[in-house]
Amino acid sequence: LPVQVVRVCTLNNECIRVDNEAVARQLTERHEDKVKWVSVRYSCWCIDRETKSLRILDMPRTVAQSFGSRVQILGKSISGDLEGCDWMIRTNDKSGLDVRYEAVYVEDSPLTYVEQKMIEDKKAEGEWDLRKIYSSYSYQEAVDRL
User: Are 27 and 146 in contact (CB under 8 A)?
Assistant: First the structure.
């Protein structure tokens, strides 16, 4: 499942990962002289079938919502050995704050045995938990970092 990654970026372009949007909102309200903007994105593991590698997909809310809509509407998972599917993510060819993303469903494509083994191997390495990879700060810890 995707993990929410909330970053508070300071005026000197340093970003601090915080626990959730409520913490980001508090920091923005109480320290507006130090906070430039807040970024809310989602990350999940995905298989890049072009490079045949397991990667972390960092995505905006719009892409995560597209994945979630498939689950809600069809009752099917976006991953797994029986219900997996392929997606293409397109942009509007702009950059920065002007870039927009669209997730396009391509086809059903359950995980192959080789892909399942790749996932099991990654889990065995002990670096699977995205909450640990994207560790974050509580409100007070973030204030101390500001």
Answer: yes
